[in-house]
Amino acid sequence: MYKHKRILFLIFLLLFIFTRNYNPTSAQQFSTSNNSEQLINLTKQKTDDLNQKITKEIIYKLNFNDLYPTYLRIADNSKRSAIIVKTNTNKYFIILDDYKKGKEYDYILFYTITFSPDSKHFAYVAEEFGSRFVVLDNKEIKKYKYEHVYPIIFSPNSKRLAYAVFVNNTAAVVLDGKEGKKYDLVYSLTFSPDSKHFAYIATKDGKQFIVVDGKEGKKYDFISSLTFSPDSKHFAYIKGQNCLNDNHYPGTAKCKKYYLVLDNQEIVISDNKEKTDSIIYKLIFSPNGKHFAYVANKDNKNFVIFDGKEGKKYDLVSSLTFSPDSKHFAYVAVQNKKAFVVLNNKEQTKYDSISNLYFSKDSKHFAYIAYKDNNSFIVIDGQEKKEPDAEDIKFFSFSPNGKHFAYIVSSKDSQNFIVVDGIEGEKFEYILPYILPYLAFSSDSKYVIYYVYDRKNMNIIKITQKL
Question: What pTM was computed for the model?
Fold first, then answer.
């Protein structure tokens, strides 16, 4: 039984840097009217002059030894890119920064490709002769070789690098080039916002615990949702006690008792006593550190706990998201097989399913991908933007200044095209990468950049569209 009334004061006291009184229903609602704050009118531009805004550049021409590009990663500043190419001898190499071909390896783990936040550094995991290792700025780190390496993360200031390594049924973290203590499992690698602290969750002999700056914390049955406060002075996580082993894996578990742990001080947030039918997970804090939320499950119903207050119960809850200015809070709920967004405590339009919630960086706009009657479309500020030929929406993004939006559409005729501010672009057979293609806005919001593969002429083409 949840004891929120009794513990609410304690939560507010301990989370004084995180929580304050807040009523999402009083937050600014996203307007659906046409005003100066709205995005560019969806029909404002004409397609006649679209080609004049687009430049195409062949950045690499595959030769007879190359089969096809397999993956693409674009740096946050949109000025750097990395493309993995597979050869007909089953080797892999990376084309870095549009033209530079890297060394061939037996395999390159595409999901490990990582640019630092300032885009000056680049890392990935390569495999050679059965061993895996990190390649940092084109230099192989072969001091240690492993069976697996994942994930790789840079610190927010781009000066530190950490990754998890696995060998001989043990796991460890390599931080700043030094391998740490070995455990059964490590996960949730996390730097503090100021980059001075580093933490992760470790498992040993069936117990889980936090390791912060190399120091091990108390051992529990279950730990999840490790996070630092925005000022980097505090850290918090959720712990479980008396948990069921049959549902015990990183990120979620069924436990009799749950605690919110802040700086090693424990607060009971759920006590089921005789039963183990409750799940608590996905703890997040608002960007300004004043609010927190997590998902709870009891009697097969999901609900959100926001600043200690229990929300409405649904069949399923997911995708908890704060706006960058911390004034808006949204999540996806499912009830009676229909999905809808709950934005500032208000239920939005119901669809068959919903994925990926997006706030613009200026927090003035909100969007998500919706699915209904075998069609997918974008919903922006409550307005549906449907593409008649769309089979699936592959990617969506707001520009950094919040004034533009773009997304990638996979059409029913197996073609792909981007839509920028409501205007469809040229259709291509392949927009990279194939499975989850994406695009990038320039940091000044003046351009959209994406990459396509011209299979007929074996060219990888960079397309830049001026806004």
Answer: 0.83
